[in-house]
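Entry 14. Structure prediction run on the chain below.
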Amino acid sequence: PRAISGRMRAWSLLAAAVACLAVLAPPLATLSRRFEYAASLQFCVLAIVIPALVTVGAPWRRMGLAAQLGTGEPGAAAGRVDRMADRRLRHPELVRTLWFVVLDLSAVVAWRTPGAVTAVARYGWLAPVEAASLIAFGLGLWLELVESPPLVPRSGPLRRAVLAAVIMWVFWVDAYVVGLSNADWYRNFHHVAGHGLSAAADQQIAAAVLWFVAAAMFVPIVFWSALQWIRSEENPDAELYRLTKMERRSSAQPPSPGPRTNAPPGP
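Output returned:
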């Protein structure tokens, strides 16, 4: 919501940095190569938690990519993110939102395949590559769900609630596949019977981690957006969207010729 203070946004950015360091450094980085639950926790933090915290933190003005409020001329001080925010308001089409959703979910599914999980566990240099791609695509997704001043979501509250629910179900499907599998879904995690955590218990804990993190991050978005939709009678930007579309259509059409008359020419 817009009421988030600057201090809270700064704490969100700090939490994102701490979370990124925690999952990419020992001991969790070492455990993620041995146990499936640790790998699932690392994946959830990179794919869901960190992008959400960075989006809520809105670091664009701190990075010099957006104008500082109350300083200078707004037009002269506009940054790259300010221009992006203007384009998002002028092009609120659903297909643009769906592109970011599809890109993020494609990256999520790709990095959760058995081959990708095995490669990350075997080659440590792939972990930063996985982290960079998941965070980048995750930012694109979360910018369509929550406000990150000066950027605002293209979609209205009801559409955001539906999108958040669909994305959450994708992560839940992954959890169900892992938890209900009778065989080892990821064969790079080796367990010795009677010693330490069993393979079945490791799978169950990994499924619970996926389910819990997805629910904790997306359920508030679903309920908050649904509540905003119930309370709001009309989208305040709807008239702006309608006028912008009419302006684009009128500028794309050629001017119509004037009326033709059959009156004889004058002397």
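Confidence is low (pLDDT under 50) at residues 70-76.
Filed with the rest of this week's runs.
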